[in-house]
Amino acid sequence: MKAAVLRGPEDLVIGRIERPVPGPGEVLVRVMATALCGTDLAVYRGHFKRVVYPIVPGHESAGQVEENGPGVAGLQAGDRVVINPLAFCGRCRFCLRGDTPLCPQGGLLGRDRPGTFAEFAIVKAAQCHLLPESIGWGDATGLVVLASVLRGQRRAGLSLGTSVVVIGQGVSGLLHTRLAKAAGASPVVGLSRTEWKLELALRLGADLVVEAGQRDAVDKVKRATRGGPDIVIDTVATDQTLGMAFRLAGPGAVILAFGVDPSPISSLSSHTLYSGEYSVVGVRAMSPRDVDLAIRAVTDERVDIGFLVTQRHPLDNLPAVMRAQTRSREGLRTVFFPWGVPDGVEQGGARDWATAE
Fold first, then answer.
1. What is the domain extent for residue 154?
2. pLDDT(267) > 90
3. Domain for residue 292, yes or no?
């Protein structure tokens, strides 16, 4: 089968590898679409020391059941599925209480086990969620992000009347902005350094947007939220943005560190937590419940994820796109189609990636 193989940091090739065979409790999925996210780029760059090369990267995917392994029930060949990229044992105390992202036996596709930038992928049957025909392949990859956003907002305690600030208006930030507004949060404030993303946040329901680089950005947010928001969602989560999150937060606020950055945090002290009685919440990914909730939110038309996909490519373009996006991220979400970009779907994006170097 055709697959992208990461032979080492920044050494990605498209080649032919043996098609895997599903074992007990496993499913062979014909991968129809896989999106590129920040974690994939971190794996590509070699930021995760535990990655064992060579590995097939990729994890935000949807496809069709091709073959069931022994003991699989509830799925059959041809079923459309979206894949929960986190494997879990289903038996430990974390899994039994619904916190499958904390499973010590778990792991992420494309980082801890072979991923989905390939024509086929092996996953556990429990990671497959039936996908309605109304959700297209490219859009379906966005359900993975949406599920994580839902879990994060639940852990942060977001509810009707909560004031919320979202730092960063990329894919996850825009979804946080939209979902916060849909949940009745008020006001919802979006921060970004990019003008077109701020405009999009307004269209998605933000009550106010603020250019993050402005000198008076913190003052503007404080005024709009009457002394600081109840929840600050940091979708970037670097040392700099987490420092801003605490400067923005109102007394007793929850800071949701939604982004992932391996760098140490120097902008936080225990005195800061003490003086403001802040709560810091992390979110690792999504549980099966969150994936089901994400599917329902889209099918019930409470959330639109169609706007997220801004570039579409065949799998052959992945190495060139990876090289380019390590230098500069363009657009919002880039999706790759191992079996070719579907008819009627515009291919490409901001440039000709087939010849990009």
1. 149-282
2. no
3. no
